[in-house]
Specification:
The chain is an alpha/beta fold. It folds into two domains: 166 residues, 3-Layer(aba) Sandwich (Dna Topoisomerase Vi A Subunit, Chain: A, domain 2); 82 residues, Arc Repressor Mutant, subunit A, CATH 1.10.10. It has 13 helices and eleven strands. Strand 8 and strand 9 form a beta hairpin. Helix 4 crosses helix 6 and helix 9 packs across helix 12. The longest helix is centred in the N-terminal third of the chain and has 18 residues.
């Protein structure tokens, strides 16, 4: 059940008003640093000033949020998490995708290191499908009444779940993606949606076939099928991504990489539509490699693709990482 002292924690604000409309009582904490994108340098403490500064700079550069606002938001989220240790009941709302699962293991790993000061309850609402929608992508698709009906389905967060999250977050923060690969291969029974999400994370590394990540390749494929403005391209990629996890601003960051690289794969026409360049067409045909012409300047978790050479790659056929 949900009580007035319940704190709902979610990696976004998409269900905040819907919970109120559905009669689900309690306060709401957004904990939404999109750690599935951008730098996570090893050695920096999650809630420490150095990583908060680094993440705020990333959010400003890639998503356009003013630096001061981004930094204040991240600081407020961590303070909210620290204050949450005093609450009687925490109800976590995280679906199956990479964005949510990465935020979830970060949060649970923090709670394992920083136990709650009360004997209260912590429970998790998590799902990968719902009868109300044909293709379930996220909790934000659901109506207020649907969300209210999920409250009784919440499962208690166990010590085993906290331990699994801590192990997974440790792997996520490692510059060696073989640690994530091992977890994705063996499975994560205590957090059943985590292993597929970790595999999807690894698919954002450059592939051995063409040097593109899965999202980059799907973006080129969608643009080749129908040149489109970036917002329309985002929706098209969501439709063909087997495990979509990006928000609109996050997708735009990927599209900009393809458009603004030294040898771009996308070009914009006078109407703002993005279409593959000749190099983009060669990449789609499998006769070019993105990394032969463009040095990646981004991170995939703790893997620094710009400076950690030779770059780690994902081998889809073998289901593993190589370099």
């Amino acid at each position: 059940m949900s009580t007035p002292d319940t704190l709902h924690i979610r990696c976004g604000s998409d269900i905040r008003e819907k919970l109120v409309a559905g009669g689900v009582v309690g306060d709401y904490l957004e904990f939404s640093d999109p750690v599935c994108q951008g730098p996570l340098p090893p050695g920096m403490v999650d809630s420490g000033d150095a990583l908060i500064e680094r993440r705020a700079h990333f959010i400003t550069r890639e998503y356009g949020m003013p630096f001061g606002e981004a930094r204040r938001k991240l600081l407020a989220e961590w303070q909210g998490l620290k204050d949450a240790r005093e609450r009687d009941r925490l109800l976590l709302w995280f679906e199956h995708d990479l964005y949510d699962q990465a935020c979830l293991i970060r949060l649970l790993a923090w709670f394992r290191r920083n136990p709650r000061r009360t004997g209260g309850e912590m429970a998790l609402v998590t799902l990968d499908r719902h009868p109300a929608v044909d293709r379930f992508i996220g909790l934000g698709q659901l109506a207020p009444a649907d969300l209210a009906e999920l409250v009784p389905t919440a499962e208690p967060v166990t010590a085993a779940m906290l331990r699994a999250a801590a192990d997974a977050w440790g792997a996520f923060r490692s510059p060696d993606p073989e640690e994530i690969c091992a977890l994705a291969e063996t499975g994560t029974p205590d957090l059943p949606f985590l292993a597929p999400a970790l595999r999807r994370h690894l698919q954002e590394l450059p592939w051995t076939s063409d040097g593109l990540s899965l999202t980059e390749r799907l973006t080129l494929r969608a643009a080749a099928y129908r040149p489109s403005p970036v917002a329309d391209l985002f929706r098209a990629v969501q439709d063909i991504d087997p495990q979509p996890f990006l928000g609109g601003l996050m997708f735009e960051a990927v599209a900009r990489r393809l458009e603004n690289a030294p040898r771009p794969a996308l070009a914009r026409d006078g109407d703002g539509r993005l279409a593959p360049t000749r190099h983009g067409e060669a990449l789609l045909a499998g006769v070019a490699d993105w990394l032969d012409w463009n040095t990646p300047e981004h991170w995939v978790g703790a893997v620094d693709l710009a400076n950690d050479q030779p770059a780690w790659r994902w081998d889809e056929d073998a289901g593993t990482v190589v370099r």
